[in-house]
Amino acid sequence: MKSLPPSCEQCFEQFKVALEDLRLFVQQSKNKELSEVYSRELIANFEVAHELALKVIKTYLKNQGKGPFSGSRDLTVEAFHADLIDDGKAWLDIVIDRIQYNPIYDLDTQKTFLDNICHKYIQLFEKFEDTMEKKLY
Q: Please, which domain of life does this record's source organism belong to (predicted)?
């Protein structure tokens, strides 16, 4: 028996759990030197939250009759046009930071990426959470 794809509300609930986990990691990271292991865990939690945010966006837009989308950049641009996010450039910066952080590339971007997560990107996710709360409930 095939299972039904998750609803937008279910995806959003998963995102909220991931965002809460990310908030805890960010809160614990304030005012202390992060170990390599903790830094990787913080980034992994961030990536999960971002993927779930994209899943919420994709599901929401699909329910609106939009799509398909070729990737996270297209999805982010469409989310901006649909007023799901209010800072399209910053959300595209997330995509770029995730690509640059990829261990395949020999760039030392981890510190900048961690700073962006803790001071910029988590705020974008919190705004997205507020927006989706209003749109879904």
A: Bacteria
- C-alpha to C-alpha distance for 82 and 104, rounded to whole angstroms: 34
Low pLDDT (below 70) residues in the chain: 1-4, 31, 103-107
Contacts of 38 by beta carbon, 8 Å cutoff, 6+ apart? 29
For 24-38, the pLDDT digits (tens) are 999 988 767 778 888
- Other CB atoms within 10 Å distance of the CB of residue 47: 16
Q: Which amino acid, residue 121?
A: Y
Domains defined along the chain, listed by start: 8-136 (1.20.120.330)
